[in-house]
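quick one before i forget lol
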Amino acid sequence: MTPIETTVDIILGWPQDDIVLPDAPRTGRDLQVFHVAQSFLQNVHVNGEDCDVDLEISQTADRNAPRVIVETPVDSEFCSARKNIQSQLAQHGFRLDVEHGGELPQALPAEVLGMAFEDFEHNRGSAQVTTLWELHPATVNLLP
């Protein structure tokens, strides 16, 4: 599937449904793959409930900028993607595992490729996450 080019700001503007059921099937935008060529990785951690890697990206490096969640699943087909982001973060002195993660010391430029997913309302991410829309499953690469 050819990815659709987008930005964090565009994702933040996607309309949200009033009610999203946790087990709702993917439809519409949820079936499309998107590429964000330029964003800033602000926060990353391993989710204690499902072991997915949860990342928060913003349009700008501003710590208070609105963010979108990006998730790299624990599933075996994403193992190399998880190791890749761990390795890239380690090059910046940041350790990511089940015991280490959180706000990065400074926002890092990143690109993202993933499927749109409108999550349901639950405790998710930092206060800067301002949309139910995510890219999940997704891969993240830090940019030079």
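fyi Residues 4-13+33-142 form one domain.
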